[in-house]
C-alpha cells in the first residue's frame, strides 16, 4: 500500500500529524498514537494490521 493512501485513511479517521520520529511519522488522535514508517511503499500486511487496529478495514 502506498504511504499516502494509509495516511489518508488515518486522517479521515481523525488522526493528525504530530511529528517526525527517527524512521517513522507520528500521528495522534486524542490519546491514540500511531507510527507510520517513512517509506513510499508500506508492506501490505503491516498496513492491514494498522488499519485493523483502528477498525478502518
Describe this structure in words.
By secondary structure, the protein is α+β, with helices and mostly antiparallel strands. It has a single domain (3-53), classed as Hypothetical protein (Metal Transport, Frataxin, Chain A, 2-Layer Sandwich), CATH 3.30.920.30. The chain is built from two helices and three strands, in the order αβββα. A three-stranded antiparallel β-sheet has the order 1-2-3, with helices on one face. The model has no long low-confidence stretch (mean pLDDT 96).
Brief overview:
With 57 residues, the chain is of the alpha+beta class. The protein has two helices and three strands, in the order αβββα. A hairpin with a 2-residue loop joins strand 2 (24-29) and strand 3.
Topology:
Blueprint: H1 3-12, E1 16-20, E2 24-29, E3 32-37, H2 44-53
The CATH C-level class name: Alpha Beta
How widely separated are the two ends? 13 Å
Give the domain tally.
Answer: 1
β content, as a range?
Answer: 25-35%
Tell me what the CATH architecture is: 2-Layer Sandwich
Shape: globular
CATH homology superfamily: Hypothetical protein
User: Low-confidence spans: pLDDT under 50, at least 5 residues?
Assistant: none
The percent range for helix content is 25-40%
Secondary-structure class: alpha+beta
Number of strands: 3
Rg result: 10 Å
Element order: H for helix, E for strand: HEEEH
| Mean pLDDT reading | 96
